[in-house]
Amino acid sequence: MTQTRDEIMSVLSSIALPDGGDLASRDMVRALLIDGGKVSFVIEAENADMAAKIEPQRRAAEAAVAALDGVEKVSVVLTAHGPAQPSKPAPNLKIGGHPKPQAGPLAVPGVKNVIAIASGKGGVGKSTVSSNLAVSLAKAGRKVGLLDADILGPSQPRMMGTNERPSSPNGEMLVPVEAHGVKLMSIGLMLKSDRESVIWRGPMLMGALQQMLFQVEWAPLDVLIIDLPPGTGDVQLTLAQKSQISGAVIVSTPQDVALLDARKAIDMFGKVNIPILGLIENMSSYVCPSCGHEAHLFGHGGVKSEAEELGAPFLGEIPLSLDVRLAGDAGAPAVLEGGAAADAYACIAQDLIGRGLA
Q1: Residues 61, 15: contact at Cβ < 8 Å?
Q2: Annotated domain spans of the chain
Q3: For domain 5-80, which architecture applies?
């Protein structure tokens, strides 16, 4: 027997919220989809603070719907309508400024491997790959750090579900925040709100990256994942000149225009002697949740062909999925919930671990 929307909403009305009301009466249920025995919906909290408090209600809602006759599978994603309120004042260590003189690339103290996640083009899901890969490696038992090096457009605080301010007890070193078992540092954690812009020229960007590499208490880490901005500019060159990098992972969609820019990123890393650890094809395919039809919206196989031509490892295909997008917006990377994308990230994580890179 297939459940109706009204029957499911009736069950959700029994899930009480800690500050009063229930999921139904507070109008927090979105995108309710019933496909035979499969049910999926989104719980949208008012802000990230509330979302962090009602994870038990999400689990209770999932269990309650799963108990209904005829329901075979339930997927419930928790997201937030707005950001959390700042919990701490900004640390007194100033970030930004001209880079300090340095004799050649240095190892990040206490960090065994540093992996740059890069792309030549924006919009290919590089930040999503960075956060999900970092959490996947942490789930595999590795000590992981995530540095958001996209200083002009930081997105990792939202994707990792935190706006906690890093502390600086001695005014010289920053203590990274922790989310989902991963140490995180981002200029976005230093801003007054997620709407505040960073308007810096190249030297300020270079100085900020140098500080977030060497004035953050990362140790001990098996691997530090660096989410780079798109392109081949100041941040990428600073990373190559200032720090010892194990290698770069290139993210691209199979679309020709994305591959064109990915080749430029690969060429840049070659010129600065940073090895390419592998290529990832993101948004590789889309499976319709209603009919099961698989479509290749951006083409298919282009990244694998590029890897073969380069003689570089092809790390895998990540599907285009609504769940991945919702999970990123909710600050709970998709790998925490399982599914096709989570399985793909787990395989990539094991590949890197197997090669001693994490």
Answers
A1: yes
A2: 5-80, 111-354
A3: 2-Layer Sandwich (3.30)
